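Weekly structure sync, notes
Attendees: PL, DS, HV (note-taker this week)

Item 1: Mycothiol system anti-sigma-R factor
DS walked through the input record. Source organism listed as Streptomyces lunaelactis. Sequence as pasted into the shared doc:
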Amino acid sequence: MSCGEPHETDCSEVLDHLYEFLDHEMPDSDCTKFEVHFEECSPCLEKYGLEQAVKKLVKRCCGHDDVPADLRAKVMGRIDLIRSGQAVPDHDVTVAGAELPGVATE
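Item 1 (cont.): predicted structure, written out as tokens:
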């Protein structure tokens, strides 16, 4: 997605790292670049607002459930693989009787 306007930080970069911004998982200098981008790009600002609202809704509805430690470790491992650019297995995994598409076993 791109608004078609030139920006110092490209729309695709902002959208590719939107959750890192939302989760405060990026350096302050990058956060500042994103904030500047949102000030000048209404489509990205709209997408940011939508994703922020979804995140708040999920937290409100699901934030009280405990996640099993092994499931959390597997999901975080998959996220790390994706972020590092490594190949991620496509097969499904069964954890405690529930199938989780695309979560790799060890």
